[in-house]
Amino acid sequence: MFSLKKGGYVKVTIKCLNCKSKNLIKRGLRKNKSGNKQKFRCSNCKSWFVEDNGFKRMRHDPTIIIRAIHMHNDGMSFNDVVNHLWQYDGVKITPMTVCNWSTKYSVFLKSHKEKS
Q1: What is the per-residue pLDDT across 72-98, written as a single tens digit (0 to 9) for each?
Q2: Cβ atoms within 10 A of the Cβ of 99, count?
Q3: Higher pLDDT residue, 103 or 3?
Q4: Element of type H or E holding 72
Q5: In angstroms, what CA-CA distances link 101 with 1, 19, 23?
Q6: How many Å apart are CA 110 and CA 112, to the nearest integer?
Q7: How many domains does the chain divide into?
């Protein structure tokens, strides 16, 4: 599998989650409301898996999650973030959901600032 970088293509290796083998076969797409993802089948252990993008088992679109965290880190309260997402995107979540997302993902975002 290849991904595009600035200078050209760079090979990305994916390993089986069970046996760590690189002997994989692409077998269709998994489709849901957050988009399509490539499905793989390991030739060694015969297991199926989808490459993890960091948002495994999340119900909402990753762009919504990232926007909510950025809005909170930029100074909006959890309730203001919830109201904004409901008014502009039609996404109905609770303030606790935004709090959980912020706790889980904010360390991975570049805009996260260490508070002294």
Answers
A1: 988 999 999 999 999 998 989 999 999
A2: 14
A3: 103
A4: helix 62-73
A5: 30, 30, 34
A6: 5
A7: 2
Same domain, 10 and 46: yes
| Tokens of residue 21, six digits | 């083998």
Domain with 99, as residue range(s), is 62-108
Q: Both 46 and 6 in a single domain?
A: yes
- The answer on 44 and 7 residing in a single domain is yes
Q: Is residue 80 part of a domain?
A: yes
**Per-residue pLDDT reduced to its tens digit, 12-56:** 578 888 888 888 888 888 887 667 888 888 888 988 888 776 677
The helices-and-strands tally (H runs, E runs) of the chain is 3, 5
Rounded-to-integer distance, Cα 59 and Cα 65, Å = 10
Alpha-carbon torsion (66, 71, 76, 80), positive or negative = negative
Does any domain span residue 88? yes
Q: Is this model's pTM higher than 0.90 or not? A: no
Same domain, 46 and 15: yes
